[in-house]
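User: Reviewer 2 asked us to show a designed sequence for the structure in our supplementary figure. I'm pasting the structure tokens here. Could you produce the per-position amino acids so we can include them in the response letter?
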């Protein structure tokens, strides 16, 4: 079978990693990259460096990864859809839901694959968490909690913490819970002197009754990437920075200390940390994109799912502005 001719648009802090993975993905042939700023990280090697998406299209690419700033996603995506090029757009899909809907409509009309780069869905800890939940390990799931905290990243210039970071948690929490958001209430703050928010707390509920909480900021002097699913049999805790998954089981023996038993409602049981095969999430994402192009069963995140995530982040910002919960 002839390899799929792939181009990468935007070879900056994120795009350079897409270049490496496009090279290493079986079934892909990296034929060109494009960035008006040139190849500042020196990743192009023997591949032609172009200046625009139009030049990539003219080079005869069949698939493209878009890793330019969010505000430029729509222009590039619409050109790629019109040219019949299968496209993976880095998250978020677009700067707002109106723009995102135009992209979704264009790709559905063109009949080509449109995917969004929610790489956390390819994290080994979250993949295993979701599998175990589906197998019934937690029984009924009560709540999904995410924490995404770190120092401010110099690469961010055009969006705040909600659209850059919280969009990951919005997508993965809904995916883990197996249901869309029904209600969200959020608060944000601006502490670093930028126009965009740098801290967010949010809580809500999915349509299946599972509660959700998000804690996201750029103001923590250490990196914290955690997802917790709490259910009737215990809790699964994923450290997505390390790709680790731990199960905290509800104890089988009654607590003898009445005050503690009444407070906790459950007893502490066995703690198990699972040994997982840890493949780079971005490599999994590229393989999913390839399989979607080939018409195989694939876990690629669709553009319509990406649009849903944008609508939730917009709900978060509306809630923060109004001080009221937003029904989605």
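Assistant: Here is a per-position design you can include in the supplement:
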């Amino acid at each position: 079978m002839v390899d799929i001719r792939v181009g990468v648009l935007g070879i900056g802090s994120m795009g350079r990693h897409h270049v490496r993975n496009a090279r290493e993905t079986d079934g892909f042939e990296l034929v060109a990259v494009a960035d008006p700023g040139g190849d500042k990280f020196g990743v192009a090697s023997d591949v032609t460096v172009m200046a625009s998406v139009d030049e990539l299209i003219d080079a005869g690419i069949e698939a493209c990864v878009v890793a330019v700033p969010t505000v430029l996603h729509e222009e590039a995506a619409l050109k790629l859809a019109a040219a019949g090029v299968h496209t993976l757009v880095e998250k978020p899909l677009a700067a707002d839901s109106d723009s995102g809907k135009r992209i979704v409509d264009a790709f559905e009309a063109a009949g080509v694959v449109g995917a969004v780069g929610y790489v956390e869905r390819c994290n080994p800890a979250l993949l295993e968490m979701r599998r175990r939940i589906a197998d019934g390990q937690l029984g009924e799931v009560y709540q999904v909690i995410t924490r995404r905290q770190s120092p401010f990243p110099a690469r961010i210039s055009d969006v705040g913490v909600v659209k850059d970071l919280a969009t990951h948690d919005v997508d993965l929490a809904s995916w883990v819970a197996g249901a869309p958001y029904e209600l969200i209430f959020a608060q944000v703050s601006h502490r670093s002197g930028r126009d965009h928010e740098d801290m967010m707390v949010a809580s809500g509920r999915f349509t299946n009754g599972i509660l959700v909480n998000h804690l996201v900021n750029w103001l923590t002097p250490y990196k914290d990437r955690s997802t917790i699913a709490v259910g009737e049999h215990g809790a699964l805790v994923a450290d997505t920075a390390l790709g680790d998954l731990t199960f905290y089981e509800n104890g089988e023996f009654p607590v003898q200390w009445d005050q503690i038993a009444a407070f906790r409602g459950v007893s502490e049981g066995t703690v198990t940390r699972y040994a997982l095969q840890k493949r780079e999430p971005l490599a999994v994402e590229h393989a999913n994109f390839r399989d979607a192009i080939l018409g195989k069963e694939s876990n690629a995140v669709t553009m319509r799912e990406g649009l849903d995530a944008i609508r939730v982040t917009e709900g978060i910002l509306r809630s923060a502005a109004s001080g009221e919960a937003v029904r989605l």
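For the response letter, you might also mention the following. The chain is about 35% helix and 30% strand. Residues 61 and 228 are 41 Å apart (CA to CA).
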